[in-house]
């Protein structure tokens, strides 16, 4: 299937000279997480959320990012790979250097055919208590590198969910006060905009069982940013991004390995990164006769200091189910090694538990 068969022809864009408030308004109105800026750039909601800015005084051009484009005749599998590598939720589609549409994660999951169930692709829940503030949830999102947080009551029951998109309503009301001290110097008091109860913005989640078929999950994700997988309590969450992994990992022989955002590093780092991954797969090969895919997502975090902090998250599909792990470090290779070591421990723990169960049944 080709990109042009699934792309959206309506192109949502904004001028680089517009304010962030105007961009947020367009995102909220059209229920999208990003907007095209000119021919080559994109403004992303996540970038706005993580910055302490005045939306009414900051221009789009200060936060826009360069983005790759996808040819309309490209296969959807290749488009999914480019999308995952870019870190964006949608990218412009071109024909003869002219933008003719947008292809998003939600568009691409329509091409997925799979016999798997929800429990095979979910990501483990990171939750927050209903008595927490939006500021706490926002910081948790940044720490865990996620954009959706299920909200629980004191008994652990899911009572809502909050995503970065839900924070638009707070950002739209954000005011930054400029003043002048008695000595004439300018100051900007910080208004703690996010220090309100998470109850103010949480919404009712869409929940499913772990044995729900992927085709039904896709139907739900066409109208919802996420679905929660429940079995008495929250056992996981599924987003369109999780399903894209199915699109580009099948059908393949052997282990399909996808590493995002490694292309910017020098060759020595790439070589050592590959060594770490190959060593992991070799050791895991002693446990499983076959595995499906390993996805490794790299993100860079740079705030006040010039030093870059790396977060590495993994998703590994095996006969025992989906395993995920995360790690952070200022050294990319250390973060990668820690993430894969965490993954290995989780796999061995579940494998040993299963083997003990098999032995007990023989008695």
Description:
With 363 residues, this protein is of the alpha/beta class. The radius of gyration is 22 Å and the shape is globular. It has helices at 20-30, 45-49, 76-86, 105-108, 118-121, 134-144, 168-171, 214-221, 240-249, 267-284, 332-362, and strands spanning 34-37, 41-44, 65-66, 70-71, 90-95, 98-104, 128-129, 148-152, 158-163, 179-180, 186-187, 207-208, 227-231, 233-238, 256-260, 293-301, 309-318, 321-329. 32% of the residues lie in helices and 24% in strands. The protein is built from 11 helices and 18 strands. Strand 7 (128-129), helix 6 and strand 8 (148-152) form a beta-alpha-beta unit.
Topology readout:
Layout: H1 20-30, E1 34-37, E2 41-44, H2 45-49, E3 65-66, E4 70-71, H3 76-86, E5 90-95, E6 98-104, H4 105-108, H5 118-121, E7 128-129, H6 134-144, E8 148-152, E9 158-163, H7 168-171, E10 179-180, E11 186-187, E12 207-208, H8 214-221, E13 227-231, E14 233-238, H9 240-249, E15 256-260, H10 267-284, E16 293-301, E17 309-318, E18 321-329, H11 332-362
Parallel strand pairs: 4-5, 7-8, 12-13, 15-16
Antiparallel strand pairs: 1-2, 2-3, 5-6, 8-9, 10-11, 13-14, 16-17, 17-18
Comma- or semicolon-separated keywords:
CBS-domain, three-stranded antiparallel beta sheet, four-stranded mixed beta sheet, Double Stranded RNA Binding Domain, 3 domains, 363 residues, 11 helices, alpha/beta
